[in-house]
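Page 37, continued from 36.
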């Protein structure tokens, strides 16, 4: 079995949804299809939620009417038979009843907000399944809320997901296509929750890992992972092969094509992940697996913004053991992940991307350390590849290229496939462009 995930733009227009159906049915293997909400729906639902939180019911109801009209127009173009059209209308009217009912809650809390945003995937999967049924395909819909679960730290409960999913799939072996929702899940209270923005990729990987699928395919509308951010630099090219480690670093450090946690479950079970382009289905895309490397020393670059650097000096100076532990205990206490770390004998510098608890962290660190002023608006540039310690030159080539850019931190050597550099965000575009021109050759691309 393969797991194929389609994002919002792939199902955002009726003709696109039809071509997804053609893709899925043309391929002979059995598939589990994970869908996102139609493009724009998640944002629209979040906007409705904002209006309801602000008690602006007129605005919320206006937005709901607009969204309902959008779905009805979609429906009229998607289905071809009177029965199909009717089926689609029933789905839309029943889900918009749920939405209208949620909009009456006072106060409108986070619980209702999550139920509201889940409607995007609930609608897209029902419409897609109904369309395949209209076309006479062998299709069944399973509900992510019946098996996708997270714990109190918002981490997926992989073993439970595996058991529940397998038992749901028992008895559905005769269906060629199984459809389910990306993104949505249940939390430990049993309430509806989600895997954060872009989480459908993660759903696909959790399912692919749980079933030890043959392959996980993430279908988008670009031709795979690029060697650099195509929105920033002029010349980029798709990278054909990545290892799990490289892909995980790139996704975490800003490559927008994949949700940052996507690689973890796939890697755990050794399931290859292939990034494919719905606009060019024959193109090879990017294959990510344990041993598919691009064969180049430097494979790709990604960048992550909104980083804060914290500079911490020990007040006890030399030979102060236990200092680093005390520092990290504080980040641990506030559940704030640290991305980059550099140290000297008496100082530690770290970066974080979640500054929610920055004030409290600063306060606690100040009790045993001297802090410099934090650097905000920083960007981590992450260069990935296969750097072997006995091969010299990678760090030199990177820093040589950046000779005119002020570099705040450098992290090299923790793994053989990542060099991270911290720069001020105002220097990011220039740094990415210079690295691009200096680290890659374009002739064969
Ligand atoms: N619909 C959700 C979002 O827009 C999940 C996804 O698309 O992956 O973030
Ligand atoms: Mg996405």
């Amino acid at each position: 079995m393969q797991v194929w995930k389609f994002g919002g733009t792939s199902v955002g227009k009726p003709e696109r949804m039809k071509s997804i159906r053609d893709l899925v049915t043309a391929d002979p293997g059995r598939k589990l299809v994970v869908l996102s909400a139609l493009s724009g729906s998640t944002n629209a639902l979040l906007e409705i939620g904002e209006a309801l939180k602000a008690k602006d019911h007129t605005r919320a109801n206006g937005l709901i009417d607009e969204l309902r009209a959008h779905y009805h127009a979609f429906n009229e173009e998607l289905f071809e038979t009177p029965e199909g059209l009717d089926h689609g209308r029933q789905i839309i009217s029943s889900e918009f009843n749920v939405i209208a009912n949620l909009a009456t809650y006072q106060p409108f809390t986070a619980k209702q907000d999550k139920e509201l945003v889940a409607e995007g995937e609930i609608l897209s999967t029902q419409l897609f399944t109904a369309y395949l049924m209209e076309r006479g395909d062998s299709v069944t819909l399973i509900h992510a809320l019946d098996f996708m679960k997270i714990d109190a730290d918002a981490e997926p409960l992989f073993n439970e997901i595996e058991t529940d999913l397998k038992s749901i799939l028992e008895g559905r072996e005769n269906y060629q296509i199984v459809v389910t929702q990306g993104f949505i899940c249940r939390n430990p209270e049993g309430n509806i929750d989600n895997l954060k923005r872009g989480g459908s990729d993660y759903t696909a990987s959790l399912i692919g890992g749980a079933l030890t699928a043959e392959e996980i395919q993430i279908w988008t509308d670009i031709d795979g992972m690029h060697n650099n951010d195509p929105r920033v630099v002029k010349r980029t090219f798709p990278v054909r092969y990545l290892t799990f480690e490289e892909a995980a670093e790139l996704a975490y450090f800003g490559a927008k094509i994949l949700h940052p946690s996507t690689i973890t479950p796939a890697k755990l079970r050794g399931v290859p992940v292939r990034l494919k382009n719905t606009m060019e289905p024959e193109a090879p895309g990017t294959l990510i697996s344990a041993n598919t490397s691009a064969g180049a020393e430097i494979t790709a670059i990604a960048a992550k913004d909104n980083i804060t650097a914290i500079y911490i000096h020990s007040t006890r100076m030399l030979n102060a053991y236990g200092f680093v532990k005390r520092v990290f205990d504080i980040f641990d206490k506030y559940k704030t992940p640290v991305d980059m770390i550099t140290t000297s004998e008496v100082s530690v510098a770290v970066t974080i991307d979640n500054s929610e608890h920055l004030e409290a962290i600063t306060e606690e660190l100040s009790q045993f350390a001297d802090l410099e002023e934090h650097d905000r608006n920083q960007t981590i540039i992450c260069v990935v590849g296969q750097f072997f310690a006995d091969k010299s030159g990678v760090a030199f080539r990177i820093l040589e290229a950046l000779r005119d850019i002020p570099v705040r931190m450098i992290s090299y050597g923790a793994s053989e496939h990542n060099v991270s550099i911290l720069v001020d965000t105002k220097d990011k575009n220039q740094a990415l462009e210079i690295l691009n021109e200096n680290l890659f050759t374009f002739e064969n691309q």
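Residues 142 and 168 are 8 Å apart (CA to CA). Flag for discussion at group meeting. The mean pLDDT is 94.
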